[in-house]
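Proteins fold reproducibly. Next comes a concrete instance:

***
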Amino acid sequence: MQLQRLLSYARKAVDEYNMIQDGDHIAVGISGGKDSLTLLYALHGLQRFYPQKFQLSAITVDLGFEDFDLTPIQDLCREMEVPYKIVRSDIYDILFNVRKESNPCSLCAKMRKGALNQAIKEMGCNKVAYAHHKDDIIETMLLSLIFEGRFHSFSPRTYLDRMDLTVIRPLMYVDEMDVIGFKNKYDLPVVKSKCPVDGHTKRQYAKELLKQLNTEHPGVRERMFHAILTGNISGWPERTVHERRKTS
């Protein structure tokens, strides 16, 4: 995927769900993976021409894994002139050595987000961008249906009132295969996850299930995504692009 196509997808999401306002200071959560680095490229590129002017910073919560070298990401942010903050933590030690969690993902996510949000507020940011793409949104819907019995998924824009912080997801229209293509084309400095349960989670199950369903019923993936966009999911903001087109 070319950078121009990535920027087109990101702008579509930002415009349709009113994700960015003039004067925003947006923190990009960087895990080290392909998705978050693609998001960094998208917002850095959008920053150059988007009519609403905004600041950009990047942040990583270091969970405490050994040999987790973030130097390549530091170099990339320096090249982009994007301020980058690393938050050191002992989350790995707490989960795997102290508590010895057999299913650590939920607690890990809560601890990571807690550390992330606190640091973001200290940096003076009012928004944080997560790198969830189209496949993530569909997989989350499947997980919600299967394990919670409800039709639900990530919202494109969510206001966290207790933190006075807004979460945005500018990659929501980007396919995971396009992210992989972008990573390969631009040789993104991916730092591989050191998590011992990576690839053995319910989310991995949903990913494989979606792939199987789309192989057996071509187009089902896009139909599921359309159902999410038009399903009036609680907490989702309205899409505003159609109103803007009418008044333009």
